Amino acid sequence: EEVVVHSHYAQEFLKKYNYNEAENILDEYNTRDSLSTCPSIIPTYAAEIGATLIAAQDSPIDILMYYDVRLHAMNGIFQIEGDYKTTRRLHAFYALRSFGNLYRLGTRCLCEGMPKGVYALSATNGEKTGIMLAVKNYEGELEFHIKNNNGSSYRVTESTYQNHEQTYEEKLNGNNTIKLTVKKDSIYYIEIN
Asked: Which of 132, 142, 131, 134 lies closest to 177 in space, CA to CA?
């Protein structure tokens, strides 16, 4: 939410000086402000990134750029392995991948009614629908209804700090309701087929 507040401030500042057509760009976004703490060791990091990406959709931000994916201390996305030839995906990678999946679907869908601490965004391409959840300060069951859906099943990819990726598939019940037990500081991507 802090990023959204600052983006509104920046937009008002630009308007004040008649830069009404200027893009509002958040460059070098990273929730860590120090080179001494690698973001990937912070359990909340992926949910923070995911929540920011989702919240930014309803803000004046035109472009948000993550800083950075070079293989050093500020990189919270990949980690280099001992052979210096192999990288390992870190928890926050799944927040960026989930958002990228929605972006490729193309058309944003209404996604509302989530409890405090759960950030949700959805998109469709007419055949598939995707839902991204960034769960910060919430644990428990979520239940939501999918409208205008022709799919018969859904696949959930869960990423937690402890287990970076677990996927399972379920059939949609007759009333197109998804029930999902979520964990704090986690990322979920739900693909409805």
From this structure: 142
Give the whole-angstrom CA distance, residue 187 versus residue 158: 6
Find residue 158's DSSP bridge partners.
166, 188
In order of 6, 42, 93, 104, the CA distances from 47 in angstroms are 19, 10, 11, 21
Task: Encode pLDDT of 149-176 as tens digits.
Answer: 777 889 999 999 888 889 999 888 777 8
- What are the start-end ranges of the H helices in the chain? 2-16, 45-55, 93-105
Q: What percent of the chain has pLDDT over 70?
A: 93
Query: Which parts of the chain sit beneath pLDDT 70?
Result: 31-37, 40, 72-74
Q: How far is residue 96's CA from residue 140's CA, in Å, rounded to a whole number?
A: 24
Of residues 52, 66, 168, 45, the one with CA closest to residue 121: 52
pLDDT for the residue 11: 92
What b/e sequence results for 151-178 when a residue is b if at least 16 CB atoms lie within 10 Å of its CB, and e otherwise? eeebebbbbbbeebeeeeeeebeeebeb
Q: Residue 89 in contact with residue 49, Cβ under 8 Å?
A: no
